[in-house]
Amino acid sequence: MSSRDASLTPLKAVVIDDPPLRQTPEPFDEQSTYDPQLPIAIDFGSSKLRAGFVNQSAPTHVFPNVLTKFRDRKLNKNFTFVGNDTLLDQAVRSQSKSPFDGPFVTNWNFTEEILDYTFHHLGIVPENGISNPILLTERMATVQSQRANWYQILFETYNVPGVTFGIDSLYGFYNYYPSGKQTGLVIDCGHEDTNVIPIVDGAGILTDAKRINWGGHQAVDYLNDLMALKYPYFPTKMSYLQYETMYQDYCYVSRNYDEDVDKILTLENLDTNDIVVEAPFTEVLQPQKTEEELRIQAEKRRETGKRLQEQARLKRMEKLVQKQEEFEYFSKLRDQLIDEPKKKVLSVLQNAGFDDERDFKKYLHGLEQSLKKAQMVEAEDDSHLDDMNDDKSTQKFDLLDIADEDLNEDQIKEKRKQRFMKASQDARRKAREEKERVAKEEEEERLKEQQWRETDLNGWIKDKRLKLNKLIKRRKEKLKLRDEMKDRKSQVSQNRMKNLASLAEDNVKQGAKRSRHQATIDNDPNDTFGANDEDWLIYTDITQNPEAFEEALEYEYKDIVELERLLLEHDPNFTEEDTLEAQYDWRNSILHLFLRGPRPHDSENIHEQHQMHLNVERTRVPEIVFQPTMGGQDQAGICELAETILLKKFGSQPGKLSQTSIDMANNVFITGGNAKVPGLKERIVKEFTGFLPVGTNININMSSDPSLDAWKGMAALAQNEEEYKRTIISRKEYEEYGPDYIKEHKLGNTKYFED
Amino acid sequence: MSGGRGSNGNSNMYNGNSNSNSNSNDGSDERLLFLRSVGERNEIGFPSRFKSAHYKKPSRRHKSARQLISDENKRLNGLLTKANKAAEGSTTVKRLVPKATYFSVEAPPSIRPAKKYCDVTGLKGLYKSPTNNIRYYNAEIYQLIVKPMAPGVDQEYLKLRGANFVLK
């Protein structure tokens, strides 16, 4: 076994630390090239903010949408750090806060400060506010108060001339299909939610769009929860950033979750797909002791041990003698009482402190058993002391045969000592003889077995296998019984409680109505319990004596191992794999593979203590956008939503797609930061192929960086002057229509109610 | 000024040559000076240059996302009942029909039966513990995890798929 384990190469562990701190602050854009008319596009996402002038090909500033208020105690002054600048220092980073609560902006003071910071870094030269028009992202069908606040901030705080609101994923679609007239379907995987939006002739159809309340943020939290439950005693707590790293680096979408999950926890698969992540920790090295010190320590320990052993032995011996005497006395008593009338027996026994004959027998039996056991132990212990003791055995026991009356006090003491010595010597001799006898018997047995094997190997194997199976079966039953005894509600314990209760009831009755009872448990003539020695074994029953039960289990296990050893030696068809131990092999344990991967676990190893294994989680977490019920969202997954849109809406009927639906299937666009999870596109292709009629053209697209799609779409829109003009809400319009105003356009939100 | 920043606040990697006593102090000082310089350059917390001349800081009440959602629900329902009351008995005023609201775009429950997975491992969960409703993959998981589960932990597992008890 261990040789098999040793041949395995250790798995490589990846240390997951918080991302490194940044070294340089966020750069400022050049003020000299500032154009006061050029629109500014801001993708104000709940995870990241992306901002830049629309004549750029990509946003010039991309940073986490967070802010830290940092108190400088020496100057007694507050500094505020935003975005990437919060990543300059550990203390600042750990205190960073988001203006978002879930999908909504809730802290507008933070928002103002973040915008100040953004404008400052864009190199804007302000003139009573900002003179550039703004393009901004919005959540699909967002609540009205969000827009009202944005209006207020942009028009009243920053005095901007105009603003365009649009849905982030529709901007993304526009960027990919800049004609603005494409029919398609957007699957938007965001930080806080996931959306499926049909698009007809370049315009989002929000009446048929759907949102799942699950995004990258929820996925990372879910991974965090899973790992906390998987390793409840993990020595350190991993941060959100660390889990985010795990999610981004190691999670993937399975092509077929049910199929993959069936074979994920196998040795071959785990060898390549089990990811070992290690929490960073500082190793504490124990100071090394010199060899001399170790030697002295060991010596001391050995000596104390010896002394204690000797003391224990003497005590044991004394007890043994006592027991021996007691046993002899009572055995004599038993022999004397054999032919006496029952009544007399009872009175004698009661005088001696027993309830009845039964009690007496039980006591005697127990005594005998413990004597036998003690003698065995003694014999083993003493075998090495024998030589020494044999010398002493020549001691004379001359006082023993003289009556006490003829001795003085000292001699009586001496006599007692001699009796003690003699008894122990006798006991030892007896035990030795017993041992020799047993050894002889074993030898005979072994020879007989050998002969049997030589004459009839098959018969022998059959017999041994049968015995082994019987033993294993009995062991299983015992284990089951033990478990059931532990469970208060199990049948076994309930029966036991019933028995106890009825016994107690019987006792009460006895006192009151003794005369009417003809046969009680004590005087039933048919009750032959105790006549047979085996009967008394019931007192070593598990219900009374759990230690004895454990012992029996262990004993039995030894028998099993011995039988297996014999079979291994002589039965060509019996291999290591068949042994009981092999069946407890970690290789066969799903739980081990799940928790510790495809290698044996060493719980002493400090590195392994700080390691977590990502295996099922890698695909279990991203699966939730396809099956939100797994994450506790009672909603349909993205492919089911898409299926409804394509097969049941826009004039499609079962088995017959409308032209609109055909166009949609041909232009599916995946966007959003959470779409970066590997395998997402392949899975969507597979599912679409499954539910669309055979032969439908399926075309699923994704840009190289789906998190930048929305910003690029805003920039593209601003370049198309005609289209752009129609989307701008001017300050005048805001003042006229108020904060409820929604200007409908192809890429934006629609009004809340039908006209 | 932009020396290397260690991951811990008063790391002494800045002044490798000075003696150890003043080391951490100098390091944190340098770090503080650096942060100050960044903070000052960013000008936040100073009177903003970008805001309009008549800017007054509005007094806003902080509302959580949950409150925002319930406010929106109240607002929409209020508009609906008001408009529909006006529409009753009138031929000129049309009834109000919701088009796209935060609530109407919410994905409906799946029409397919939810697949069952092991709450512990994520594998298929064909069995369910009768005592705490935890789904499990096989007897081993049941014996070693589900059965001896400490009270309360079962709820943690169930919470992952929203099947926990919620006291109201």
Highlighted features:
heterodimer, A: 755 residues, alpha/beta, 6-stranded mixed sheet, 19 strands, 11% strand, elongated, B: 168 residues, mainly alpha, two-stranded antiparallel sheet, 4 helices, 2 strands, flat, disordered N terminus, ATPase_NBD (chain A)
Describe the structure.
The complex is a heterodimer of chains A (755) and B (168). Chain A is built from 27 helices and 19 strands. With 755 residues, chain A is α/β, with parallel strands linked by helices. Chain A has a six-stranded mixed β-sheet with strand order 4-3-2-9-10-19, sandwiched between helices. In chain A, strands 11, 12, 13, 14, 17 and 18 form a six-stranded mixed β-sheet that branches. Chain A has a three-stranded mixed β-sheet with strand order 1-15-16. In chain A, a hairpin with a 2-residue loop joins strand 7 and strand 8. In chain A, helix 5 crosses helix 25, helix 6 crosses helix 7 and helix 10 packs antiparallel against helix 12. In chain A, 32% of the residues are buried. About 1% of the residues of chain A have low confidence. Chain B is flat and about 70 Å long. The relative contact order of chain B is 0.05. The two termini of chain B are 56 Å apart. By secondary structure, chain B is mostly helical. The chains are: A alpha/beta (755), B mainly alpha (168). At the A-B interface, strand 6, helix 2, helix 3, helix 4 and strand 14 of A face helix 1, helix 2, helix 3 and helix 4 of B. Chain A: Keywords: Nucleus.
